[in-house]
Amino acid sequence: MYMFSRLTVRMNSPYFTSAALDSSATETMGKSTINKDGIRRLRSRMAQGLRSEDDPPKVKAEVQEKSISDDPTHAHNPADCVKSTSYNTTSKMKEEPDQALLSPRKRGRGHLKVEYETEGVGLKREPYDWRTQLSFIREMRSKRDAPVDQMGAEKCYDTQGLPEVRRYQVLISLMLSSQTKDQVTAGAMQRLREHGLSVDGILKMDDETLGKLIYPVGFWRTKVKYIKQATALIQQEFGGDIPNTVEGLIRLPGVGPKMAHLAMDIAWNQVSGIGVDTHVHRISNRLGWTKKETKTPEETRRALEEWLPRDLWSEINWLLVGFGQQVCLPVGPLCSVCLNQHTCPSAHRSSPSKKIKSSPAKPNNKLASPTALVKEEPEDTSAQRVSHQRRKNTGPQLNQQDLSASRQETPSLARNRRKGRAGAPLSGQT
To answer: Would the pTM of this model clear 0.85, i.e. be above it?
Structure first.
């Protein structure tokens, strides 16, 4: 109440009314009519001073009166209205500095954008022009005539068998394919299927018979042991069917991450990861699809899964395996026939001689050189024939001359021979 009374007394002051200003101005003009310009300046200064000093209370009074007249519930408590108006004005005064401080933050939005971009690059780093390289590999693999296309794990199981039998045969083919060519694996799988390749059949089979059937796969003795142990674990813990998770498959002896991901894709039709074997590991490093050179297939798998789209995880294995079997060989890759020879950072490094064959200028020289050799060979042979013929022709003449000379020298030679015979010492004389 005290604050409200003080505010009303101040509002009734003559300084708030325009009449007071006019009266004071007229009195001043009546007293001093000499310097009207000075009076006007003084009057304007007084008006500006009064406005700067008394405008906030005037605003508060207007807000107060309006709030009291509009809201009848606050008519009996004017002090609360004063507090609320003072709180509103202070809050507005506090908001103005905040808005002023927001302007430098708006200027700093560029820094936030840069941080976001760097985080995005760090989270997903795609190799340069990898889509073009992949399209070229698809083009080179369009015939599907690699060994993996005819004798891979997808072609070795019995399509007429039960689902659990088919899945078990897929797992066995993957276990046999480690460090073994597809031709050898396909032959071993065919012999096993003829003897009944199933969980019960392998458990009943002795180690010696199993070894003879899978020979000559790589490390066949070790694989006999692993197949027996894995089959027993499948029968005991998984009910005669292979596990349907990567963790369960890796628990089996002789089964690694590559086999587990491929088994999930082929047997269970679930893409859980990229199956990286020696071909995928080698080609990915040659193409520069990893941030740095990886040492193991498992490191390559993690590096590829960081940026490669998930819908390509199933396709990338058979693409690169067949490509590695036909073009990007472990030793002596055929860079001259590869469509990626101009974008692959490792092109012609492993096989420097292939670069000469693929260069545009050298093939012309090579094509010209054999023809030159072919043209020169007849010339050489003809010259040799001519010289040989001449020797044949001159040979008899020389022989006749020698014979005639020998005939002419025959009497003298005969006399010398006779003299030599006559003057020759007898055996025993010195």
So the answer is: no
